[in-house]
Design goal:
Layout: E1 8-12, E2 14-15, E3 26-27, H1 29-40, E4 43-44, H2 47-56, E5 63-70, H3 74-86, E6 90-94, H4 106-114, E7 126-130, E8 133-137, H5 148-156, H6 161-175, H7 191-198, E9 203-207, H8 220-238, E10 244-246, H9 258-266, E11 271-273, E12 292-293, H10 300-311, H11 320-335
Parallel strand pairs: 1-5, 1-12, 2-3, 4-5, 5-6, 6-9, 10-11
Antiparallel strand pairs: 7-8
Helix pairs in contact: 1-3, 1-10, 4-5, 4-6, 8-9
Length: 341
Amino acid sequence: MTPAAASVILCYHRVARLVSDPFHLAVPPELFAEHVAVIARHRPVALTALAAEVAGGDVPPGGVAVTFDDGYVDNLRAAKPLLEAAGVPATVFVTTGATGDPAPYWWDELEALLAPGGGPQPPRALELTVDGETRAWPPGATVSDRGTAFEVWAWLRTRAPQSIAAGMSQVRAWAGAEPALVADALRTMTVEELRELVESGTIACGAHTRTHPLLGAHPAAVQREEVGGSRDDLETWLGTPVATFAYPFGRRVIEYRGSSVRVVRSLGFACAVTTDPGPVTARSPLHELPRHVVPVDLDGPAFERWLAERLAPPPGSPPLRRLAKRVRRDLRERLTPAGRL
């Protein structure tokens, strides 16, 4: 393998085998086990430790920080044993308003209502009116290839929680369904399970807002309540400081804005992560650290190739900062008399 010259942060959501996964959130457990084995052969590093390297101006190559978003229970049941056995640290970003909620995330319920295998589809168009806007989708809606479910999700996700709830109520009425109670294997963790998740120290929890809004669509005061509130919840439940944050959805300008970064920074988080891909370097902004969303269908060899590409430096672009530091050290050693500091 080519020596790694960069460090990266990886983003997972779920470790589970799902019948339908239109949003590409779940890595099957057997594939995740292969991913962990590959990561363990590099330089597994906790997110807070990687952030400290960035703050110190020296990020050694080959670092791989593992993160999960949203707080699904399979992070505890499936991911934690594999990570602990391999000595790979991780951070789970928790949407605290969903913690212990018997209802599914709204996007999971949306997928279930529109899935081809979820029952017969009503022979009428799906028409939603939210915040005075109306959209319609033709009969026979399907989530194949992220179809209608993805379109409805994209249309609803910019809105306030109560508006999303109103939209979901209309989807249920169209489908003739009652509000869903999520199956045990698909739910989020409870407070007690979060405590179990972090008890060994291999996994830490980070804040991910209370209701998973698209932050950039809301005023700064709402963002502050969402971001700070999620940290307050976690610190109350776990009894330990929470230093890290992940922007929901996580793409700059499209899904969060400069106001979001200012809120996170003002609240004193050590670092925050996005879903904009890229290497982590000494010049990476601590409150907008890039992350790579991991494809859900890679086996071990394919994941190793994928990871190597992201750890390798761009062609013709050596790590100049580290090179300059090495040159300065060599010059200092040549110019300093032996035995003198």
